[in-house]
C-alpha cells in the first residue's frame, strides 16, 4: 500500500498528518485536555523515547568523520539559524502582521527550527553527497537548536501569550532533547546495532508520536476556535510563501557554495541540510516554548506545510542528482 502511494508521489506520513488534522477538525474534544488524563501528555512521553533511540543510533565515530570541514559546517548552520530567520524578519518588516499575528509567529518559529536529521541524511545519500558531513551537520543542528530557537522566539513571545521564560524553555528542551540523546549515545556501543537493525520500526514509532502530537495540538486549537481567521485563500498564500522561502534559501546557498568552491558532494550537503526544517523539533519545541497549548496548532501549521513541500521538492532534486541530470 505504501509503495503504491509513493509511486504517485504521495508520502503516507504526510497524508497521515493531514488526516490527523481533519480528524481534529471533526471531533476536537477527543484529543483535547480531559480532567483525568491528557492525550497530549501521553504523546509527550513518546518524544523522550524518540530522542533516546536517535542517540542510540548516533555513533561518535561518524560524528568525528564529519568534523573536519569547518567551512561547510559554518555555511549550513548559518543558513539554518541566521539566514532563514533574517529572511522572514525582512518580509515581516514589509507587511502588516497584526491581522494574523499567531500565523506569522508560526512562520518565524518555522524559520528558527533546526534542520531535519534522518531525511537530510537519506536525501544526501540518494544524491551522492558527503554522508558523514550530513550526519554531523544534522546532529549538531539538533543540539544548537535547543539554545538558538528559544533565543530567537524570545523576541516575539510575550508572557501574556502563555510563553515560558527563556530559562524555563531552554531547561525544558535540555530535558526533553539533550538528556535522552545523551543517554542513548552512552548506550550506543551496547544497543546501537539493535537500533540500526530495527531502524524501520523505530522510524514508524517516531512518525506515530509526531502524528499524535499534531493531532492533540490541533484538537486544542480547533476547540478554542484559533483557526477561525484562517481562510482557504490565506492557506494558499501560506503554501506559496513557504515554497518561495525554500527556493530563496536554496538559491542563496547554491550561490554561496559555488562562490566558496565546494565540491559536488559538499554542495549537496549544504543545499539539503541547509534548506530543510525539522517537524520533529517543531512539535517538541512548540509544547515547551508555549504554555498555552491552544496556540500550538496554529504555530505548527507553517512547519507542517514546509515539511510536506520540502520532502516532495528535495526528493525530486535528489533523484535528478542521482541520475546525473
TrEMBL record:
Keyword terms of this UniProt record: Membrane, Transmembrane, Transmembrane helix
Pfam families for the chain: SBF_like
A Gene Ontology cellular-component term: plasma membrane
Name of this chain's protein: Bile acid transporter
Coiled-coil regions, chain positions: none
Domain of life: Bacteria
InterPro entries per the UniProt record, alphabetical: Na+/solute_symporter_sf, Put_Na-Bile_cotransptr
Residues that span the membrane, as ranges: 12-30, 42-60, 72-95, 101-122, 134-157, 169-188, 200-218, 230-256, 268-289, 295-318
Position of the signal peptide: none
